[in-house]
Structure to design on (1344 residues):
């Protein structure tokens, strides 16, 4: 960390600051600019806030040189993490596709979609049992009953299930029955939830928050890893910007940026990322070309009757064709 | 709601859509544009998603004409809501100032700050016992012990306490001991939490999320109100934009916009909104001039030693002078 | 256009508004909601601002149903525009790659890069002669001399040249010597410039502004087309968001969105869109998979010595390998 | 500037980089972190791009410690700049109000508004003769005729005139006849225009671009100052964010931030900053409380018939009342 001082600092003030730094266990080095005096700190600064020294009157600003995340950092863990659920893998060089409806609505619906996406080559089944909805008056998901239906679909198709956990009250059930626990975008900085889920040591799909930077996503993963869960897939699902033609702005550059910064696998959600079913195909292909390890795609047998997110769901037929194209693009960009 | 159709729609497709609308209990009206055909829906559309009809192939897009919030809507509840905790009020035309440290750190600290801010005219004491921190390695707050210290400070000063609730595990304790429950920005769309807190029927300070629109803030309030809690203060605390000179961009226009849309009182947080202690004064005064009902300000006796947010905390001395200025600006803009 | 009225409007006020609408040549239709009264306007509203009626006290808000752009609108011009400069095409189903250095620096440099990119299959040569720089103290380009060097490079390689026009003072020279005139992101809403350039009736590469929506980009194209220039390629080059890991956020969803809204070809700039040379390859491939008609890529023979944008330039060797991959991805997504 | 190296750098590569730095006239200092090696540069780095060294393979990233603007920097010019046009001042501690219609529409209109705002205490008259409009089909201003009408209004009221210059073709006329030349938000980074206008050495009102940071605004001012114009008022007029309740998000924190960074006076535009006439009053008062040196406000005698921006214009009556409130708030925050 580098602490930039204001001009014309009183020597006793600077001595006080230096003393404080030393008392925290750092070594301090003087750095001279032309019109600027700086102090460089050596030692483990990962636990320090950038603001720690901003409290001192004589400090102009501070500069963090290194990342605050350690366990998620490729610098210290160069090998790719591969998530493996009964042979269904994310991060091993294959293209893992997670597919299914926004919400579980009935046994018939989830079984029908699960069979269709399995047949087309999906590796995981998604489906919401507990739904975060921006209106208290909207359909809130089937809850435990939805979870039971997902289990039936898993037993019929062999697809591991991915579903969202919204609070700590269902931790036990999710630990027992869910294969990959999804943390939704709105909960990415729900630190109480991250702390508890981290202790379960299960595979987790962690979605990037609408207004969260790539570094904050990695810090959220760090919470989960500090709790003992290391099988984490990071999910880019669009950020909030001024553009309104799409529901969110899918930040595909985040894929190669994350591949450089972390060893964790990266999944892209073109359904939430765009909000329009007809944008799902081009953005799924673009994500594949950008180097994503997986995709999560909303598929519904009758999108125009879906209880949730029908506008961004594709039909099993469209999904089937898309899977062929994904395969072709994945081969085109693979190094062999 | 208005549903805009694509050009050259097959009559049987349009008939199917109309039938569906009628089956949901709406009356349907044809609206003709020059190159556009639209269907207008009358009936209660507040429970409808804008996307409900976007699922139909023949629909170009849909337009929501009315707000989805009812209980929070000034259109239906024209009179201002006034929160009253033992005579300490927010929304009655006075300027309610909530002040105190980011985190409770010790009995001595919280008592000292509480006495200082009470003496300067603060109406409520703030202080974090449970802290949402972006790093798992940072100080996470004193927890229950911090809550006990806040209670001591309340008994010594008479100031009601405002403190953040992070998850459902502490609902009982907060119900019993906290005067105003704060929902933090990162939990504004933690719908599980909103649902449970709403049932407590206690005063709530609801902070706007970093990437949330004014309408989404009102929908979050609607969650709390649908649960039975009507004493809600909305808090503008800065949104995330491209500008990095400040920690967030304080959206003061939200104050008059909210005053028009809702009857709930509006509080502004210039500390989190800017992230720099020297910007707290000008933005506190600006918020007052913009018509805010209250302010929430971080005050620390020794900011340079604070365990959290020291960079944006002001000293009791600065706070004291600021209170005088706030008073003068409040008088200047009051209609009398 | 739909004009939503406030509740409880005085009849004479409404009559006055109606009269005004009729006087502007529109037909007016009543639309009834449950708690809302609206007026629907039929007629050509493309010349109207959404705010035109917002001036009336009794108007709550107005809703624009149709786009303001006509000439650029695929609704009225369904066939793809193909730009053809001596057989070098953009928009014909091939993948047009525009490559070259950020700035022309010397004859040796531009000739060397031009030959390299031509050999690798680029269709156009880019190179800045006049440079928009955020600091008045930075290198501002070689000016006319740079243009002369580009002409030499064109004569040696046969590649048409694409270069940026910054103001009206060079219109004549650009008209005579430049094949495709680039309007930079910072000038996308320099309407004086758009008006003049539109009159030249030359091919134009129009870059999206950092903070401009897709609709505003189309309105800027409309300016050029209203002047008589119809061969316009739109360029997505990243928008400004809160994320700082990349120089801008490349909005690849804009590609399929634009393909739907307009008949003009779409080019993507992964160099400015990311700001980092090692992100150019994945984002170039992603843009190709998303359906772009072309790419514009910064290539420099010695990036570490470039006078401008060296950080985001790739070497001719990296470019050569990339061209092979672009070809493979383009084939994978083409329908045949 | 600090250059952070990647780990495990080959010594000969580092030597090459050092040699390059020395060749540019800098002195180089080693800075050691625990897992990081950095090089500190001393010398005048204001002409350097942050990316200058990013071209070298061994460089992880670079950190700019000091601002790139010199002439606009309060660090080197601590005294406030005061603009004085025949005794009408901006920046002298008074509250300078610039008022008038969006566009000049007729002699009757501009004279009527000019007299009204003069009577209410405005110090300058604004009015657009050349208008930047996002649609080529919208009213583009009266041009030279509008300028003539502004001159008449000036002669009748004594108010200096502020009007926007859109391109270099009118430089002479503006030099001769306009008192304060306005550079609009869309032209803030039109560097050709900045260069030419800077040479005129006239007072300039420079508006912040929709997507421009505070530092970029200061760099644009630096362009003007490098040309010889030192009387520059910076204008905050709202930035583009995800919030759509207002036309832009007025960033009032920019006022105290700018007061700290620069000696130039700061003007706030609550009309464009919000886009709604009923938000103009609260935000004008908030800007005054935040410490602005001036305001620019759209006033129209018949807003519902205005050819431009009627939705955000206030009437002379509303303006008159507002001026009284501005005065009261200004006194409340002034130190005396």
């Amino acid at each position: 960390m580098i602490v930039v001082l204001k001009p014309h600092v009183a020597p006793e003030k600077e001595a006080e600051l230096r003393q404080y730094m030393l008392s925290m266990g750092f070594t301090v080095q003087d750095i001279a600019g032309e019109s600027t005096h700086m102090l460089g700190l050596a030692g483990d600064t990962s636990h320090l806030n950038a603001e720690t020294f901003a409290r001192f009157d004589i400090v102009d600003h501070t500069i963090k040189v290194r990342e605050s995340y350690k366990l998620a950092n490729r610098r210290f863990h160069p090998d790719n993490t591969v998530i493996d659920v009964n042979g269904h893998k994310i991060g091993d060089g294959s293209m893992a596709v997670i597919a299914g409806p926004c919400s579980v609505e009935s046994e018939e619906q989830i079984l029908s979609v699960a069979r269709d996406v399995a047949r087309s080559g999906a590796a995981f089944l998604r489906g919401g049992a507990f739904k975060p909805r921006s209106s208290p008056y909207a359909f809130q998901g089937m809850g435990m009953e939805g979870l039971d239906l997902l289990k039936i679909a898993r037993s019929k198709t062999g697809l591991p299930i991915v579903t969202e956990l919204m609070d700590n009250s269902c931790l036990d059930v999710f630990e027992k029955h869910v294969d990959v626990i999804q943390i939704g975008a709105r909960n990415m900085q729900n630190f109480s939830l991250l702390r508890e889920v981290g202790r379960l040591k299960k595979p987790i799909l962690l979605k990037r928050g609408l207004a969260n930077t790539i570094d904050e996503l990695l810090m959220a993963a760090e919470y989960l890893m500090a709790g003992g869960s290391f099988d984490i897939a990071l999910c880019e699902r669009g950020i909030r910007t001024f553009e309104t033609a799409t529901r969110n702005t899918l930040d595909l550059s985040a894929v190669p940026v994350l591949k450089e910064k972390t060893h964790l696998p990266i999944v892209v959600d073109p359904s939430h990322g765009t909000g329009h079913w007809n944008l799902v195909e081009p953005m799924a292909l673009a994500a594949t070309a950008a180097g994503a390890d997986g995709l999560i795609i909303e598929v519904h047998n009758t999108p125009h009757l879906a209880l949730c997110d029908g506008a961004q769901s594709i039909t099993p037929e469209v999904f089937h064709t898309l899977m062929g194209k994904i395969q072709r693009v994945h081969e085109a960009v693979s190094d062999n």
